[in-house]
Amino acid sequence: KIPKFPLVAIADSLKMGDDAVNMCSQSNVESIICLGVDFMSESVSAILGKNGFSGTPVYRATHKHIGCSLAESAEGLNYKAWLNKSASEKSKALHVVYINTSLETKATSSSIIPTITCTSSNVLQTILQASAQMGPEELRICYGPDTYMGENLVSLLSAVLDSKWSDERIKRDLHPAHDQASIRALRDNTDVYPSGNCVVHHMFGQSVVDTVMKDYSDAYVTAHLEVPGEMFQIALKKSLVDDGVVGSTSNILNFIERKVKEASEKGENKRLKFILGTEAGMVTSIVRSVQEILDSSSSKGVEAEIIFPVSSEAVMGVENDGSESSTSSLEVVPGVAGG
Q1: 138 contacts: CB under 8 Å, gap ≥ 6
Q2: pLDDT per residue over 18-66, tens digit each?
Q3: Rounded to whole angstroms, how far apart are CA atoms 284 and 291?
Q4: What whole-number distance in Å separates Cα of residue 102 and Cα of residue 73?
Q5: Are 141 and 190 in contact (CB under 8 A)?
Q6: 58, 155, 238, 339: least surrounded by Cβ within 10 Å?
Q7: This prediction's pTM
Q8: What does the alpha-carbon distance between residue 127 and residue 42 come to, in Å, rounded to a whole number?
Q9: CB of 35 within 8 A of CB of 10?
Q10: CA–CA separation, 291 vs 197, rounded Å?
Q11: Is 242:161 a contact under the CB 8 Å cutoff?
């Protein structure tokens, strides 16, 4: 019997929790196996509990710690000191914390300073709405722990100002309660944690930027909010003329789908090139989606090339010594989030 909701889902940490809820509510699963870093299984368990499935165990694929450099950067004394400093100042402050952190980080942060959790999909609207409600001149946004994402958000706001968006366009395309003056105040009152990065996104080094600029000037460029500034700036500049996009994984996928659909509907004979500025896990879903669009189109003249540039320092070799720890067998054991 085919279940009402698929029993396998590939997703980011938030969507993973939503998928787990649907598996429980629609397909009556009795347990969840989470293949991801530790904070992902924590998030899945918390989302299940919030939706009435607290008794459903969440398992991990190994008993070993599966860490994340970004999440761990928010678990030390430096991060707490940064939050305490912001909390001690006279101005109103709101801590906007990235979802890719542990539940302990979120709880500890909330005990120090008002805290709200965001995703890469809603972080921009989160800070825009908070600023609009509390007053951009009065509210200080403390964003962490992802330094790249925080700096890229500031760059995005600066691009809006430098491009001289009218108040009308800001209200239409960004937020109805904002204008140039409030966007400037929000940018100037955003404090980004300076020492938090995900090692996965260090793969987009200067060599990648040079290659993109030299060999792929005619390509669409996409960049996740977590990638280093140089790569982000290329995509941001192109996004202003609809030749690129910056944002979440879903924003990137939607942009590529739209461009392929537009070319197919016009019956064009061309090869579309897309620079993928995010983690390699996106490649499979993008290729599958693009292939479905091309297969269903009556126009057969469109081709799509997905380019995943990686710096040489991001590639490493792994030796298999034949020991038990290096075998490929999958052991499913209860994880911390599964109780």
Answers
A1: 91, 92
A2: 999 999 999 999 999 998 888 899 999 999 999 999 999 999 888 888 8
A3: 11
A4: 11
A5: yes
A6: 339
A7: 0.77
A8: 25
A9: no
A10: 33
A11: no
